[in-house]
Amino acid sequence: MKLLLRSVIFLFGVSLVFLPLMAIAADENIQSKVHKLMEVHGINQLAKDVSGLFLQTFDNDSESGKITKQLGSLLKQMVLEAYDSEKIKKVYAESIIANLTEDKVVKLIEEAEKPLSKKITQMELEANNPANFNDLQKFLIEIQNKPLPKERIEIIQKLEDVCQGVQMNIDLVSNIQLAVARGVNMALPIEAQQKDDELKKKANAYLEQIIPTLKQQSFLTYLFAYKNATDAELNEYVQFYSSELGMEYAKVSRKAFMDAMNACADELGNLLGKSLVTVKKEEKK
Fold it and tell me: Which of 181, 179, 174 minimizes the C-alpha distance to 265?
């Protein structure tokens, strides 16, 4: 599910003097539970791994010559600042608090602490870890030579259907692409800048071309992530996410993660725009 996140309800009492204290206590109570949920469900570790996934990409692009080492180094610095793990966790937690009741958070913690959930979460975190990139490549070669059984593919597809992780990856790429385009646009002379609608149109057009590849790569990552889980375990996991609470959590968690990623992507775009403006000023000197 994690293949990889406004409002506070106050209790109104008779005494206005004690109302603020009651509200703060209630707020801190659900915050502590949400932070617990994030920890047991691997969100905190995922927040740390996100920037590493980008850094791995920039290293690969630098080595292959797609981008210069100087540009790769600059992009890595901006990513580390924009995709700060504490910021990701903060935005994710705020979104969860706004969209889930405390009772549901407690039930989700109980589910996440079950042995199977812990096992699945660990598999997902290992698949997201940039250090395991080579293992992923080896696995892809293996299944090319020896395809997985049809039944196994169908189970993974069921999990994807309820969790929508592939679509989340597509949304993530789309938002980052648009944020970077906005940053580059910001650095252009005013007369050369494009309207935001035009940037979105071009970004969407490019996204349409790469969606098939994104879907395939994301699904293959799913196959890799759960390679050590049995069919019975995956079916049980799918059963939870097919429940009312499971489907709600999958939806709310995707939104929370995308809220965090959108905030980071916007920051990356701003940093890129400012950096390009600075570079152009230095070139004119």
Answer: 179
Question: What would the pLDDT profile of 63-98 be if each residue is shown by its tens digit?
Answer: 666 556 776 677 778 888 888 999 999 999 999 999
Rounded Cα distance, 10 and 25, in Å: 10
Residue 160 CB coordination number (10 Å): 19
- pTM for the structure as a whole: 0.77
The single residue listed with the structure tokens 């699945």 is 120
Q: At what angle do helices 244-284 and 43-64 cross, to 10 degrees?
A: 40
Cβ–Cβ contacts within 10 Å for residue 41, how many?
25
The total of other beta-carbon atoms located within 10 Å of residue 185's CB is 18
d(CA 174, CA 177): 5
Tokens found for residue 85: 């793990």
Rounded alpha-carbon distances, angstroms, from residue 238 to 1, 23, 189, 283: 10, 37, 52, 56
Contacts of range 76-83, beta carbons closer than 8 Å, 24 or more positions apart: 78/268, 78/271, 78/272, 78/275, 79/51, 79/54, 79/55, 79/268, 80/51, 80/55, 81/267, 81/271, 82/264, 82/265, 82/267, 82/268, 82/271, 83/50, 83/51, 83/54, 83/264, 83/268
Q: Break the chain down into helix, strand, coil percent, rounded to 5.
A: 85, 0, 15
Dihedral, 224, 229, 231, 234 alpha carbons, nearest 10: -90
